[in-house]
Structures are given as C-alpha cells and as structure tokens.
Design goal:
The chain is mainly alpha-helical and 100 residues long. It has two helices and two strands.
C-alpha cells in the first residue's frame, strides 16, 4: 500500500510540475491575457481611426477626437494608461502599447 501511495503522489506531483512547465505559471497566463486584450483594443482603435478618416477625410489629432459607435477601451487594462497615438503625416499614424 505504501508503494502505491508514493507512486500516486509522485504521479500527481509530476503532473502538476509538468503543467507549469508546459503552460507556465498563473502569472504568465495572466500576462498573456493582458497582451491579448491589448491586441484586441488596438485593433478596435485602428478600425475607429480608419472609420474617422473615411468619414472626415483626415486622421484624428488625438484618440479623444474619435467618435465611437460602441464602447471601446482607449486605456490599457493592465496599467490604466491611455494607448499611445501619434499622427505622423496626413495619412500615417502610430498606435502603440507596451506588451509583456
């Protein structure tokens, strides 16, 4: 009986360690989710900038100039800081966020 207990404990402990090695820690998974959210937010903001350009013929000067039909987040969920938007020329811009 003791051998079965030891073997089962080793198998369970090995499975847990293997899971952390393959998937990463819960902290790492949380950082991946934050990065996925940032990508989704930046894609939504990009679509709204393109819509603004197609409707008005000019890029917005700031993200606050975008009129949004539905709610999109202009702030990073992890840091609560606004995403960076920089108008470079009349038709080009940078949209930035820090990733993990």
């Amino acid at each position: 009986r003791n051998i079965y207990r030891v073997v089962s404990c080793v198998v369970v402990l090995g499975s847990i360690i293997w899971g952390f090695v393959v998937l990463g820690s819960p902290r790492t998974q949380r950082l991946y989710r934050y990065d996925d959210q940032k990508v989704n937010d930046l894609m939504n903001i990009n679509n709204e900038v393109i819509n603004h350009y197609s409707m008005n013929g000019v890029l917005p000067n700031t993200l606050a100039d975008i009129t949004v039909q539905y709610y999109i987040s202009l702030n990073d969920a992890q840091t609560q800081k606004p995403y960076e938007y920089e108008k470079l020329t009349a038709t080009t811009y940078n949209l930035c966020a820090p990733f993990n």
